[in-house]
Design goal:
The complex is a heterodimer of chains A (128) and B (360).
Chain A: E1 7-8, E2 13-18, E3 21-26, H1 28-34, E4 37-41, E5 48-49, E6 54-60, E7 64-68, E8 73-78, H2 81-84, H3 88-91, E9 100-104, H4 116-127
Antiparallel strand pairs in A: 1-2, 2-3, 3-9, 4-6, 5-8, 6-7, 8-9
Chain B: E1 9-10, H1 14-19, E2 23-27, E3 30-35, H2 39-48, E4 50-54, E5 59-64, H3 68-75, E6 88-94, E7 100-110, E8 113-118, H4 123-133, E9 139-142, E10 147-153, H5 157-165, H6 167-172, E11 178-183, E12 186-191, E13 200-206, H7 210-218, E14 223-225, H8 228-237, H9 271-276, E15 281-288, E16 299-302, E17 305-316, E18 321-329, E19 338-342, E20 349-355
Parallel strand pairs in B: 1-3, 4-14
Antiparallel strand pairs in B: 2-3, 4-10, 5-8, 5-9, 6-7, 7-8, 10-13, 11-12, 12-13, 15-18, 15-20, 16-17, 16-19, 17-18, 19-20
């Protein structure tokens, strides 16, 4: 199930625009690939991030991987619950497992972001 | 999955893994299941009940003949004179420098016959070394391709095995002993050994019966299949070394803290080197401050200076913290020593404390 109201990156992050604020997380596909998530390094609130930057790290039992910023702006909130319960990302990747919010600089720019249908197709192409 | 389409070997249970929804990965030339339901769940299930592992990739060699005992005494670190028929010992095969060519279990399967169970990734290297050093009175046979190996591990495994072969047989099979039994009409060598730190068994039998015995054990409610991911976290928590990570040809059993598996009262390849060297580094465990785990290759820092290197690392499902193994300068190897673990890029910094094995 790929939520219709979100936008997606090729690195399997999702973005939900709420006014000038972008909520960011990783997709169901990404959490499944990572397996049991054991630790999340969150960005600092107030930090400036540029689109494409590795701004958070997610560790699973097997390995560590970076999360890339899908938009540019200032981090306005982080999901502190992940510090003690990183498995929320496994369980609710599109809900309680959100990672952070970014106050977007100007136009968020849909460049490089896919809608649900395009993301579904992207996943299908990469399965093969 | 695509990772398995390249020239990787598949075990006889490949189809069973796919059926069970396993994620497959490449491991020392084999396509192996890394996880089924999830590494943490599989790990905890093995600690609480029983896990079933496909270990068909490991190597099995037979060495037999009138000079087999003397040859193996020279080649391996356990004392063959003390190894009775029906029993096994853990130990090493060393090179002339005392470096570890492989770690293995040697079982005495007959008056003049021994079974060596070796690491999958070392089968070829071991074979070359053994063949070169056997005398004429010994015969070598590589049975790896014909032999299936299943591990049943966890506190529920004696009860489960009792239902299959009877409780008398299970009771008779003490730690590091083996029995020859029949399961579903299949001749099986079952040893009370394993790589999880739990009570459990390793089963050796002709590979064509792998599917039947897999299904037999899977029919128990308390048994779940467990992949290499949990095998790694299980062995790390109990301080069991992994060849290629924690031990290798560059390190001796003394450096690895495994001298108890070396019988110094006999002559063997590598003995001179062990006697003449004073180890400056030591393999030990560490527990991280929090959930973040250091990984293989991280530097160990003490008082601002480099003092060692991480050889294994990961998340401990039992402690819910990062754990791992490192080689560290001997002076800093005492339990309680505070260390800092830093990745190659210097971006990740983790505080940890040295702990003696086992880590849980």
């Amino acid at each position: 199930m790929i939520p219709e109201d979100l936008k997606y990156t090729r690195d399997h992050e999702w973005v939900k625009m709420e006014g000038g604020e972008a909520v960011i997380g990783i997709t169901e596909h990404a959490q499944k690939e990572l397996g049991d998530i054991t630790f999340v390094e969150l960005p600092e609130t107030g930090a400036d991030v540029s689109k494409g930057d590795g701004f958070a790290t997610i560790e699973s039992v097997k390995a560590a991987s970076d999360v890339y910023a899908p938009v540019s702006g200032k981090v306005s909130a982080v999901n502190e619950e992940l510090e003690s319960s990183p498995e929320l990302i496994n369980r609710y990747p599109y809900g309680q497992g959100w990672i952070c919010k970014i106050n977007v600089d100007g136009d968020p720019g849909a460049e490089g972001l896919m809608d649900a249908e395009a993301y579904a197709q992207f996943l299908e192409e990469n399965e093969q | 999955m695509s990772v398995c389409s390249e020239n990787l070997k598949k075990t006889a249970l490949y189809g069973k893994h796919i059926e069970a929804g396993a994620r497959m990965v490449a491991f020392t030339g084999w396509c192996m299941p890394v996880q089924y339901s999830g590494i943490i769940e599989e790990h905890l299930h093995t600690r609480q009940k029983a896990g079933l592992f496909d270990i068909c990739h490991m190597g099995e060699f037979y060495v037999s003949g009138p000079s087999s005992r003397a040859d193996l005494d020279r080649l391996l670190t356990p004392c063959m004179a003390r190894l009775e028929e029906g029993k096994g010992r853990y130990g090493f095969m060393l090179n002339g420098n005392g470096g570890i060519i492989d770690d293995l279990i040697v079982f005495r399967t007959g008056e003049e016959e021994y079974l060596l169970v070796v690491n999958a990734g070392r089968v070829e290297a071991d074979k070359r070394w053994i063949r070169r050093h056997l005398s004429e009175g010994s015969e070598f046979k590589d049975s790896s391709d014909e032999t299936a190996k299943l591990d049943l591990q966890g506190p529920a495994s004696p009860g489960i095995l009792s239902e299959v072969i009877g409780s008398e047989e299970v009771k008779r099979t003490g730690r590091f002993c083996f029995s020859r039994v029949s399961m579903e009409g299949v001749p099986v060598m079952v040893s009370r050994t394993g790589y999880t730190g739990e009570d459990g068994f390793e089963l050796f039998f002709p590979v064509e019966h792998a599917g039947v015995l897999w299904e037999r054990f899977m029919s128990f409610d308390d048994v779940r299949p467990v992949g290499l991911g949990a095998r790694a976290t299980l062995r790390m928590e109990k301080g069991l070394s992994l060849y290629g990570n924690d031990i290798d040809e560059e390190h001796t059993p003394l450096e690895a803290g495994l001298a108890r598996f070396v019988c110094m009262e006999k002559d063997f390849t590598g003995r001179e080197a062990l006697l003449s060297s004073e180890p400056e580094i030591r393999l030990t465990g560490f527990v991280c401050e929090g959930r973040r785990a250091a990984r293989k290759g991280y530097n160990v820092i003490v008082n601002g200076s480099e003092a060692g290197e991480v050889t294994s690392g990961g998340f401990s499902p039992s402690l819910r913290k990062g754990i791992g193994f490192c080689y560290i300068n001997r002076e800093f190897s005492a339990p309680g020593q505070v260390i800092t673990l830093i990745d190659a890029k210097g971006k990740v910094e983790i505080r940890a404390e040295i702990k003696a094995f086992p880590l849980i």
